[in-house]
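Z., the sequence and structure:
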Amino acid sequence: MDVEFEEHEVTHILADEILSLILKQYSVEELMRIVASNGRKNVYLYFKRQNPRSVKILIDHGDRFRYRCDDVICVPIPKKFALLEPDPAYFEITLKANLILAFRGADERDLYP
């Protein structure tokens, strides 16, 4: 098997697992409400790369946090499909895409808003 394919597959599996863990705590609609009720604040999924199963939701009240994809993963939860065009399916898809992009070390400008 190709090493790049294996890394790609592992990235998707991790993203699925993290999303599953979050969705056991909060429904997609609840996550959308959290983002909508904190419209002016950034909301992140936060965890350490070494322990991705300890994922938490972080609401940035003081504009102190930023996107990170190093030893700490701090991924913005997309606002577009929670605020501007509410759609649970697209919200979930873009959240998973942001997780995958963070695992791959993408620039912040490549993430979904």
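The chain has one domain: 3-106. The radius of gyration is 14 Å.

Let me know what you think.
H.
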